[in-house]
Amino acid sequence: LTCDPANDTPDVLRRYADRFEADAARWKFLTGDMAVIKEVANKTFLLPAEVGIHSERGVVFDRKGRLRGSFHLLQADRVREMKKLLREVLAEDREKEAA
Predict the structure, then answer these.
(1) What is the separation, in whole angstroms, between the first and last Cα of the chain?
(2) What does residue 29 show for φ and ψ, rounded to 5 degrees?
(3) What is the Cα–Cα distance from 93 to 68, expressed in whole angstroms?
(4) Which of 33, 47, 69, 70 has the CA that lies 20 to 30 A from 87?
(5) CA distances (Å), 16 to each of 6, 32, 52, 56, in order?
(6) How confident is the model over 6-56, as pLDDT tens digits?
(7) What pLDDT score does 45 carry?
(8) Which of 43, 38, 40, 70 has the alpha carbon at shortest distance from 57?
(9) pTM for the whole thing?
């Protein structure tokens, strides 16, 4: 989710995704009106959003859209916790498919 919609147009984001060979089935690169971006960031991600500012936080949502965790990505122990939670969330989906 870009915080620089004036520069990060859909075309720019598509080229960025292509550069990193992002799987469109798994990755979405989003832009839009900055007021809406701020509202989503603040109310859904529980993160601030300002033009041109990149957050050092990562968030994990499950497939039901529930926020499961927020992590500081510059702290190795927090990144390990985030990876653990990601594995747990992914396992929940596999367990559901197996049932």
Answers:
(1) 34
(2) -110, 115
(3) 14
(4) 47
(5) 15, 16, 16, 19
(6) 999 999 999 999 999 999 998 899 999 999 999 999 998 888 888 888 888
(7) 87
(8) 70
(9) 0.68
Q: Around 35, how many Cα atoms within 13 Å sit in the side-chain half-sphere?
A: 0
Residue 15 Cα distances to 9, 11, 12, 52, 96, angstroms = 10, 6, 5, 19, 35
- The set of residues, in sequence order, having a beta carbon less than 8 Å from that of 71 and lying 6+ positions away, is 57, 58, 59, 60, 78, 79, 81, 82
The pLDDT tens digits of the residues spanning 49-59 come to 888 888 888 99
Give the model confidence (pLDDT) of 70-81 as tens digits.
999 999 999 999
